[in-house]
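To the wet lab folks,

You asked to see what we're planning to order before we commit. Fair enough. Below is the target structure as tokens, and below that is the sequence we designed to fit it. If anything looks off to you, flag it before the synthesis order goes out.
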């Protein structure tokens, strides 16, 4: 028996999480385990009613579960950033989920915008660092000469670039990216382990040619780790270049490790080449703590309650969840049922089909049960 927390969240989140639960329950029936679900009413509605994002009690509570299954957050009634930072990032940081695992895999029968590329060509994993970089939330924005901070920034500019910014605009915003040796080491080691298991290559994505302090440290750590994995071939790429190669030669990639913000950006590109956001899952993993699984896409408020949202990314994230809690066979069965469902043509409109959200979930669950 597993206890799993579910957070439907906003927009289409609750609908797609329902389908995911249905499929995971079916996997439990077939493979002889059960899941006890507890739903947490976290999201925009509660925030608007009570001002609460995630409470201390909830954080303490969530720690007791085998995993968290997360739908989506984001709501037009709330200023951008409030729910994202106050809920999603808060959970990732609180539970120190330093791995953001995002498989980029084109399934059989799925359309990709890349002409001539097949499932053999698009099959890699992005390991995105998930707790550092520009996501640490250190920054400020201010106006007026009297502010001490403004003077400090001006001084920095003058020292570093010998610029006279006296004449510049007197409103400044800054945000700081942080990489720590420990933070880089743990995620890069995880990526090397994964690459060693997959038996191929690990690519580091950064921008060490410009942001040479933070990503210089990142590269140094990468090079240090590489020594312990002689069987894994390695390469460095710059993030701008990697966006070209993902499109032109996705078959070059096997495991890709990247700092947080570049990981955010390149995995939306990855999602598109694997058939769209409706198919892209992710896991926020703390190997020794509480992990959380979610689709990469957002809450798509305009489709809320229409019964047409694509639940496949969430179901796939459910497969990652099963794998994580120690049910790899069930995880595999969910992924093959998902793949079969696509081949059966039971897909939502975004994938060119006619099926509704529930019909897709029912179909996958049925196939999981049958085996
Ligand atoms: C993602 C999302 C989040 C991120 C947002 C919603 C905070 O874009 O999971 O990729 O930037 O990490
Ligand atoms: Mn993103």
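Sequence we intend to order:
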């Amino acid at each position: 028996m597993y206890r799993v927390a579910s957070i439907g969240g906003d927009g289409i989140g609750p609908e797609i999480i329902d389908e995911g639960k249905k499929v995971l329950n079916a996997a439990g029936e077939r493979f002889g385990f059960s899941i006890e679900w507890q739903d947490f009413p976290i999201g925009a509605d509660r925030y608007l009613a009570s001002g609460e994002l995630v409470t201390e009690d909830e954080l303490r509570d969530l720690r007791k579960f085998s995993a968290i299954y997360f739908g989506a957050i984001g709501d037009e009634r709330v200023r951008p950033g409030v729910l994202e930072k106050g809920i999603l990032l808060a959970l990732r940081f609180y539970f120190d989920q330093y791995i953001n695992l995002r498989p980029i895999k084109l399934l059989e029968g799925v359309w990709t915008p890349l002409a001539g590329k097949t499932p053999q060509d698009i099959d890699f994993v992005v390991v995105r660092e998930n707790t550092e970089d520009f996501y640490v939330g250190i920054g400020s924005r201010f106006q007026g000469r009297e502010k001490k901070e403004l003077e400090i920034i001006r001084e920095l500019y003058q020292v570093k670039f010998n610029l006279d910014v006296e004449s510049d605009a007197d409103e400044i915003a800054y945000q700081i990216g942080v990489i720590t040796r420990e933070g880089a080491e743990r995620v890069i080691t995880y990526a090397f382990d994964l690459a060693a298991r997959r038996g191929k290559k690990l690519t580091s994505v950064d921008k060490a040619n410009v942001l040479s302090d933070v990503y210089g440290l990142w590269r140094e750590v990468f090079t240090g780790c590489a020594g312990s994995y002689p069987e894994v071939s390695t390469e460095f790429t710059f993030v701008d270049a990697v966006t070209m190669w993902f499109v032109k030669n996705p078959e070059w990639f096997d495991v890709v490790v990247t700092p947080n913000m570049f990981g955010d950006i390149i995995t939306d590109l990855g999602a598109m080449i694997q058939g769209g956001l409706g198919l892209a899952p992710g896991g926020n993993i703390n190997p020794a703590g509480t992990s959380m699984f979610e689709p990469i896409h957002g809450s798509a408020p305009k489709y809320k309650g229409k019964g047409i949202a694509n639940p496949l990314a969430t179901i796939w994230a459910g497969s990652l969840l099963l794998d994580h809690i120690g049910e790899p066979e069930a995880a595999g069965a969910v992924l093959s049922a998902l793949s079969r469902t696509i081949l059966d043509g039971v897909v939502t409109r975004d994938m060119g089909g006619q099926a509704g959200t529930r019909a897709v979930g029912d179909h996958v669950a049925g196939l999981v049960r049958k085996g």
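Structural context that might help your review: Residues 84, 88-89, 264, 296 surround 3-isopropylmalic acid (ligand 1) (CB under 6 Å). The chain has a mean pLDDT of 94.

Thanks,
Computational group
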